Amino acid sequence: MIVPETPAELIGEFLPKFVGGLLSGPASPAAAASSASKPSLPSANARRAPAPVGVGLRVVGAGEWTLRIVGDQLASERGIAPDVALQVSLLERDFVPLVVAPLRRTLAQRAGSGSDAGPASTNLWLRLGRWDEETVELLRQQTSGILLRVSDGALTRCVALTPSVQPYSLESAGCTIDCALGDLEQLQERRGNPLDLFYAGQIRISGDAQIALAMAGLFL
Predict the structure, then answer these.
(1) How many domains is the chain partitioned into structurally?
(2) Is beta strand 175-180 parallel, antiparallel or unpaired with respect to 146-152?
(3) Partner of 84 for a Cys bridge, out of 20, 56, 137, 201, CB 3.0 to 4.6 A?
(4) Nearest-CA neighbor of 85 among 122, 51, 126, 121?
(5) Are 20 and 73 in contact (CB under 8 A)?
């Protein structure tokens, strides 16, 4: 499976097919046998339905999209919808190293292991399907967002996580997280623990750390 480098192709075409396939993948043989032998009744442990909102993805210099779960599919539409729960913003120059490269590593690892389970860079997209009304309300209660600053040699690559439709900024936020690209890759591939990297000084948090704590569960 080839991961395209352009935002329009990846967000508008690749992600809906890729994530949709994961969301609607076949059930395990044990689960299929269990469901066949039991009547279809609501379960107390069933996953709550996703909230009817989306995530805005802004690639400055390339375009804006809204991603949302519709049934077992990931829908992509142009523009930032007014009901988004979160905006993710980054520059076009940072799209390949921060978005494309992790997806490519994920696919390579999945192909090598022969498993459908992927590391965090895959699960990040799947978590959108688990955002219920309670999760969305938690986001809407945040009065500021997070600015992730990733050191990559002489460059600093920034990603802004902005609640709801609040104005975004790639220069400042209520909470700023600094790390090196190599450390971010460790987290994406689950080769490192966020707390371990924090205590080792490889992840540095400034500003209101409560914002990071409140939003961390959405992505980790």
Answers:
(1) 1
(2) parallel
(3) 56
(4) 51
(5) yes
